[in-house]
Amino acid sequence: MDPHIATALDRHLTADARFWLADAVARVGQDPAAVRAVFPAVGRHCGRGPLVIGWAVEDAARALLLAALPLRGAELAEEITALHRYGDAAEQRAVLRSLALLEDADGSFGDLGLPLVRMTLRGNDTSLIEAALGPYAAHHLHHGDYRHAVLKCVFCGIPLHRVAGLDERADPELARMLADFAHERVAAGRDVPVDIWPFVRAHPGALEASGLPAETAAASPDRRAAAERALAAFHATTPAGAA
Predict the structure, then answer these.
(1) What secondary structure does DSSP assign to 102-130, as a single string?
(2) What is the pLDDT of residues 162-183, one digit of tens each?
(3) Distance in angstroms (rounded) separating the CA atoms of residues 57 and 195
(4) Are strands 55-56 and 50-52 parallel, antiparallel or unpaired?
(5) Cβ-proximal residues to 87 (8 Å cutoff; 6+ apart), any chain
(6) Burial of 180 (0-12, 13-18, 19+ CB in 10 A)
(7) Where do the structural domains in the chain lie, given as residue ranges?
């Protein structure tokens, strides 16, 4: 776990909560099946609520429990999949946020967590989608799946700065998809999320190919106005990756 998150958690917990969590971690380390009892109980013993950006108190505490599991590879994947399947939304979020941590343990976990990521991306819970698109997904999702995940975030209103790896993985095809999305919004007379523009501007020609600029001559006043707002925002942004 990131030392910053671990330190923040330790400072947040009461003495009783720290004692309970340390005992739970030790139990899980000795008996993997113990995680099934202590994992759901984290919120009751350690509290809930924001801890650091992107992490809640209960996420961090549950991540420590998962990291303590003396399992590797397929056995680890089977256990966390069961925790995800039978857990509530908060428990599922913790599993998703912990995937990169589990991968770092010894390398045997690999892409075994991808089914959980893909399942989440088929749903509509924005907090879970955001949790799924952390460093693990950025490392393992194939290009097409990653692009569609980014587009889903745009549709769902998830800010793109919360998608791990986007600056590195954005490519001309994603720029094309985002520009086409922007054109669809403008054609409906609607505004375009401004956080897509750096990724479109990074690949010259994507906006023109979408046909959006021609909407400034549309018969509908709403479409013309939406196009003008979109183009103003496009030109006001710095391309992704620019210094």
Answers:
(1) HHHTTS-STTTTHHHHHHHHTS--HHHHH
(2) 999 999 999 999 999 999 999 9
(3) 28
(4) antiparallel
(5) 39, 40, 94, 95
(6) middle
(7) 1-112
